[in-house]
Amino acid sequence: MNLDPLWLSLKIASISSVIVFVVGTCIARWLSRRHFTGKNLLESAILLPMVLPPTVVGFGLLYIFGKNGFLGKWLQTLFDLQLVFTWYAAVIASVIVSFPLMYQSAAAAFKNYNPNLENAAYTMGASKIKVFWTISLPLAWPGLLAGLVLSFSRALGEFGATLMFAGYIPGKTDTLPIAIYFSVESGNSQAALWLVLIMVVIGFGTVYWLNRWNKRQSIWITGVKDEEA
Amino acid sequence: MLKVDIQSELHYYTLDISFELNEEIGVLFGRSGAGKSTILHAIAGLHTPDNGHITIHDRAVYSSKGINLPPQNRNVGYVFQDYALFPHMTVANNIYYGIARKARPEAKEHIDGLVHALGISHLQSKYPHQISGGEKQRVALIRALAMKPDVLLLDEPFSALDEDTRAEGHQELLRLKNEWKIPMLLVTHNREEGEKLADRLFNIDNGKLQA
């Protein structure tokens, strides 16, 4: 059995999740205590890929990064880099579609604790960086980790945008979901079945873990079990 | 000496207040939402007024003529209404949070004195969710005093406590006032408490000092 699609998917999802985790955490923290006109617009733009069909996202990415897209042209002339139909394209597609999930979890996580905890730290002379690492990050950690797991799963399952933007090139851009589609398409249901089982196991593991983690995190922060609360 | 003279346009009212406080307890008394907490925030640097000046110990920490020290540089001890103890740190780590690692041995004597005086020595390795409300209030007080602040701000520190614990807290605060000799500004909406503790009582309504 050809497991290459699994490794490729894990590679793409891992890289994409790390990017999404770092950028999503920073943007969510930055926006969490700020109020300005246009914040709603900005947040809507961030969340937009969640409600759009992946094919629309894929079309957009082609439009921007394609041969005649403004970023595509620029990358081509400056770095001689063509993103379309490479696994980098799959990473970009995964980042765009999974970013809203990370942002939502992170934004909720940073709103979830009392802002006076940060204020108290400031009055004790702590720098903004110290407060972020010692207060904000540990307190938001359960939500951030949940966001990481969700966006990893979303990246692993990404199909539509990836197919449009990275295409189906066996050995290069055939991620798990795409390999499943083309296995069935070509009548090789047996190969597809194994890949499907792998996806189901990973997916179930994720949801099971998230569910348990959600129950544990409330104990960790408040010391009260769900049943007592 | 603490000097406050600030104006600030807020959502529901205009804060316009001016007072001075020596090494004594000043009580800001008034209904909820009258602007008491905002005054504490402004002194600590967590709220920037539109106009005026704030001086702590002859040091201008805020002036609309271009001074606005961040909270980190104001050396203000702050006991928050909900105590704001860091839930993921032990009592000892909460208390020592603001003290640089190098300065800890030096600060230890002074902090041990506080910890002993307020009777929480046995709680140092506990987490905030494992101790009672009265104990949390003491930890928050010690944490605020640990960095030897120039002024102590207390936002309804006793409102969540039962009557006996509250009375104990009052006695402790009065004792600390004599030891520390710094301006202490306490917010309460309890008139009895205010009258009992105050050297100076400031009645606040709609963001303004009432006679």
Automatic annotation (TrEMBL), chain A:
Keyword field: ATP-binding, Cell membrane, Membrane, Molybdenum, Nucleotide-binding, Transmembrane, Transmembrane helix, Transport
Pfam families tied to this protein: BPD_transp_1
Keyword presence, Membrane: yes
Transmembrane segments: 12-32, 44-65, 85-110, 131-152, 191-210
InterPro entries: ABC_perm_TupB-like, MetI-like, MetI-like_sf, ModB_ABC
One Gene Ontology CC term in the entry: plasma membrane
Organism domain of life: Bacteria
Location within or outside the cell: Cell membrane
Database matches in SUPFAM superfamilies: MetI-like
GO function term, MF aspect, one: molybdate ion transmembrane transporter activity
Protein's membrane topology: Multi-pass membrane protein
Primary localisation category: membrane
The ABC transmembrane type-1 domain, residue ranges: 6-208
Role description: Part of the binding-protein-dependent transport system for molybdenum; probably responsible for the translocation of the substrate across the membrane.
Family: Belongs to the binding-protein-dependent transport system permease family. CysTW subfamily.
Protein's recorded name: Molybdenum transport system permease
Species annotation: Pontibacillus marinus BH030004 = DSM 16465
Automatic annotation (TrEMBL), chain B:
InterPro entries hit by this protein: AAA+_ATPase (IPR003593), ABC_SmlMolc_Importer (IPR050093), ABC_transporter-like_ATP-bd (IPR003439), ABC_transporter-like_CS (IPR017871), P-loop_NTPase (IPR027417)
Keyword match ATP-binding: yes
Record bears the keyword Nucleotide-binding: yes
Molecular function terms from GO: ATP binding; ATP hydrolysis activity
Superkingdom: Bacteria
Gene3D superfamilies listed in its UniProt record: P-loop containing nucleotide triphosphate hydrolases
UniProt keywords, alphabetically: ATP-binding, Nucleotide-binding, Transport
All copies of domain ABC transporter, residue ranges: 1-211
Entries under SUPFAM superfamilies matching the protein: P-loop containing nucleoside triphosphate hydrolases (SSF52540)
Name the UniProt record assigns to this protein: Molybdate ABC transporter ATP-binding protein
Species in which this protein is naturally found: Pontibacillus marinus BH030004 = DSM 16465
Taxonomic lineage of the native organism: Bacteria, Bacillati, Bacillota, Bacilli, Bacillales
